[in-house]
Amino acid sequence: MTEINKFFYKVLFFILLTFSVSAEDKILKIGNSDAKITVKVFSSLTCPHCASFHKNIFENLKKEYIDEGLIRFEHHSFPLDLAALNAEIILRCHTSNNKKFQLLGEIYKKQNQWAVGSDINIINESIKKIGLDSGLENNKMDDCLKNETAQDQILNERIEAQKQYKIQSTPTIYINKKQYKGKHKYDPFKKAIEKLL
Q1: Does residue 181 register a pLDDT over 70?
Q2: CATH code of residue 106
Q3: Regarding predicted confidence, which is higher, 148 or 24?
Q4: Cys-Cys with 72: which of 31, 101, 128, 186 at CB 3.0–4.6 Å?
């Protein structure tokens, strides 16, 4: 059985369980918790469209709205494969929220360097190189990748998101409780935000 198949069997196993603990506490968040607008992005770190959204929309959104306390932004992990799951685990190795978001940006920026091939060990080493540059130690990242609790939390989040939001593709974006279906360009996204301020 390949590593990828093991991943999906594990997902299936967790779907069959009933989770009593909410995954909401583990969601990666930035911005004012009392902001009028919450942007939720359900994404897989191996998804090119997710990387594009982060680069073209999130970075501008952070400068104009998040840093100004007008928007709360949530990155919801929705891994589509084992590589995305492991990248998410490395991301969560950081304890600092700011460091997590900096690393998230680097993971997306270098996606075409690490998210290639079928050998998960090579992919893991490529992800870890990005983690090293962000200040994480090699041993810590190895420990994180072996941590089944971290894997379970991420898979739990994915399953809860699937149940609640019926995710069909990544990225799936919500502005408050409404799904954003516009273009993944900053100007139309900004217009959608401005209507709610």
Answers
A1: yes
A2: 3.40.30.10
A3: 148
A4: 31
Question: Structurally, how many domains does the chain consist of?
Answer: 1
Compute CA distances 75 → 24, 91, 123, whole Å: 11, 11, 22
* C-alpha span between 184 and 171 (Å, rounded): 10
User: Residue 130: is it exposed, middle or buried by C-beta count within 10 angstroms (0-12/13-18/19+)?
Assistant: buried
Which pairs with CB-CB distance under 8 Å and at least 24 residues apart come from 139-145? 140/93, 141/90, 141/93, 144/89, 144/90, 144/92, 144/93, 145/86, 145/89, 145/90
Helix, strand and coil content of the chain, in percent to the nearest 5, comes to 55, 15, 30
Domain of 109? 3-194
The two tokens of residue 119 are 């050998």
What's the pTM value of the predicted model, to 2 decimals? 0.86
Residue 37, strand partner residues: 71
The number of CA neighbours under 13 Å toward the Cβ of 101 is 16
What is the 8-class DSSP label of residue 59? Answer: H
Residue 27: the pLDDT is: 86
Q: Which residues contact 157 (CB under 8 A, 6 or more apart)?
A: 23, 26, 27, 76, 77, 78
**What per-residue confidence (pLDDT) applies to 8?**
54
Angstrom distance (rounded) from CA 115 to CA 117: 7
Under the banding of pLDDT at 50, 70 and 90, the label for residue 16 is: very low
